[in-house]
Amino acid sequence: MGRRDLGSLLPGVKYGHKVYPNEIAGMLGLAYIGDIFYVDPTGGSDGNSGTSQGDALATVAAAYAKCTSGKHDVVIIAPTGGSGRTTETTAITWAKRFTHLIGSGAPLMQDHRAGMSFGAGGSFTVSENGCIFKDITLTSSVDTDVTVTVTGDYNAFLGVDFKGTYNATSIGSTPWRALVLTGAEENLFSGCTIGSDAMLRSAANASLEFKTAATRNVFEDCLFPIRTDDADALFVTADSAADIDRFAWFKDCTFHNAAFSDSTTMTVGMSIHAAVGGTVILDGCSVLGITDWADDYTAVVACNNAKVTAQNSGFMEKVTT
């Protein structure tokens, strides 16, 4: 944004007014914020104050510890080099209401140059309400089955890359998940990527799992990539009774198995229990590299081009000439 464009939002800029961090955060979509804490995975130190990019912390865990629940504090990952991802050595439970985490980088769907990487025993759990997570990658390279779990409600995940664990042992185990929603209600996932096709998954695991009456969660414009040599691998599972309450709405999402690379065609994309407790809505979704959408259609409905039977509309095909 140029000085003239910025001046239209903040007229004082025309006259030399300094743009303060809270004003920048407001331009990112936060109408009001409290304190800001900066994290620089490359140049930061957890002994710093974190109150400026020049005195940034090194980990999100250290920044989160400084936040106050309910005060609309913001943690900004502002890298100066490298992958832009922190090295988190402990599990983080995000249990402070209205506390936000934003990556300062290009607004991508995958491989953000800002984010968190978890070491041994590390994982990320969102257990509170009303938080925004934006433009970050969440991943791990150690043997951890579930990288991210959401139990909280009314949170927004905007352009978040839920990559899961980059570990051959984990991706070869049945419990592996990139994201699990457990009793989580009314969360929004917009422009997110859930799963990864960088490593070849070698077990009947799933990118996304619903558990314990997860309610009214919405996924819009999301990408579900996978690469596997196990035909029983899944994009989504809700494989027990009452795992979904009301609905799980997938709107304009793309489910992509790398079938034209070296991935095995999957038997189904979703394993949905007949008594799942709610409806899985496929709204304008597309899929590649599976034989059929789901193993049971009792709770699965489709509209706007997505169909629930094999080889119907919604299935992408390779174009040949």
Q: Key features?
A:
321 residues, eight-stranded parallel β-sheet, 4 helices
Helix coverage percent: under 10%
Number of strands: 26
Structural class: mainly beta
Order of helices and strands: HHEHEEEEEEEEEEEHEEEEEEEEEEEEEE
Strand order of the largest sheet: 1-2-5-8-11-14-17-20-23-26
Task: Tell me about the largest β-sheet.
Answer: 10 strands, parallel
**Whole-number radius of gyration?**
20 Å
- State the shape: globular
Put simply, the count of helices is 4
- Catalogue the unreliable spans: 1-7
Mean pLDDT across the residues is 89
Question: What share of the residues does DSSP label as strand, in percent?
Answer: 35-45%
- Determine the oligomeric state from the structure: single chain
Q: Termini distance?
A: 43 Å
In short:
The protein has 321 residues and is mostly beta strands. The protein has helices spanning 3-9, 21-27, 60-66, 168-171, and strands at residues 36-39, 74-77, 85-88, 92-94, 100-103, 115-118, 124-126, 132-134, 137-140, 146-150, 156-158, 161-165, 177-182, 188-190, 193-194, 206-211, 214-220, 223-226, 234-238, 244-251, 254-257, 266-272, 278-283, 286-288, 290-294, 300-303.
Molecular structure report:
By secondary structure, this protein is mainly β. The chain has a domain at 143-321. It is built from 4 helices and 26 strands. The strands form 4 sheets. It has a 10-stranded parallel sheet with strand order 1-2-5-8-11-14-17-20-23-26, with helices on both faces. Residues 1-7 have low confidence and may be disordered.
